[in-house]
Amino acid sequence: MANEIAEGMWPCTVISATAGEDRGALVVRVNVKIDDGPDKGKLTTYEDTVNEKSSLYIFRSLKAIGWNGPDPKTIETDVAAWVEKTKGKSTVEIRHIKIGKGAKYDKYLDNHAAWVRDGRPEGKEPLPPIWAKANSLGRGPKPLSTPAASTLTDAADAFRRAMEADGGSAPPMDDAPHSASSDVEDIPFITSTFVRDENGQVL
To answer: Cβ-count burial of 48 within 10 angstroms (0-12 exposed, 13-18 middle, 19+ buried)?
Structure first.
């Protein structure tokens, strides 16, 4: 499990895409490289089999990386053209799925049994195996491009004016806009919860 890519939405670079047949069904594969996070630089593959249930989700992922659809014969070329144009910057969703059978699971059961026989030593309990599935592409925040020099200059000027307006003081503890008056009525969205009598006195 320690070698699996961390779960989450990660920026990535799309490398290539292909589609081929396996057991009478079309399988789509997209190779990507993780660009940030604890697994930066690792490679993973988005892979799914096309059927009535999965086709919508596969289409959304492929559309996000340049496929024009609907002919699967153009997946490879459409994505390659998109990669050349955009440098392949996208996102990949990694989802951890528990493995409940197979060789990895059998090994986990053996290790767990040995751990129990050894008296359950603290910190050495084996973890159940998981599959770090590349679940979707192109979701989440859009990857940011490197800012141009003019963009950085404009932002620096805006921050400089903000610092001057702030007077070098620490930011307020809340985001409510305060006026010169401290009356509750002058703060938007704030209402008084005091109970008053008929003369307006707080009870």
So the answer is: buried
How far apart CA 194 and CA 31 sit, in angstroms, is: 61
**Top-ranked range on mean pLDDT: pick from 127-131, 166-170, 199-203:** 127-131
Q: In angstroms, rounded to a whole number, what is the distance separating the alpha carbons of residues 179 and 133?
A: 51
Q: Please, are residues 139 and 91 in contact by the beta-carbon 8 Å criterion?
A: yes
- CB proximity list for 54: less than 8 A, separation 6 or greater: 48
* Cα Dmax for the chain: 83
Q: Where are the domains of the chain?
A: 8-137
Q: Which two tokens stand for residue 135?
A: 């679940």
CB 11, CB 88: distance < 8 Å: no
> Each residue of 84-95: pLDDT tens digit?
999 999 999 999
Most confident of 2-11, 62-71, 189-198: 62-71
Burial of 55 (0-12, 13-18, 19+ CB in 10 A): middle
Task: Give residue 177's pLDDT.
Answer: 52
Run of H or E residues at 30: strand 25-34
How confident is the model over 2-35, as pLDDT tens digits?
A: 578 999 999 999 999 999 999 999 999 999 999 9
Q: Which residues pair with 27 in a beta bridge?
A: 20, 49
For the record, the structure tokens of 165 come out as 């307006």
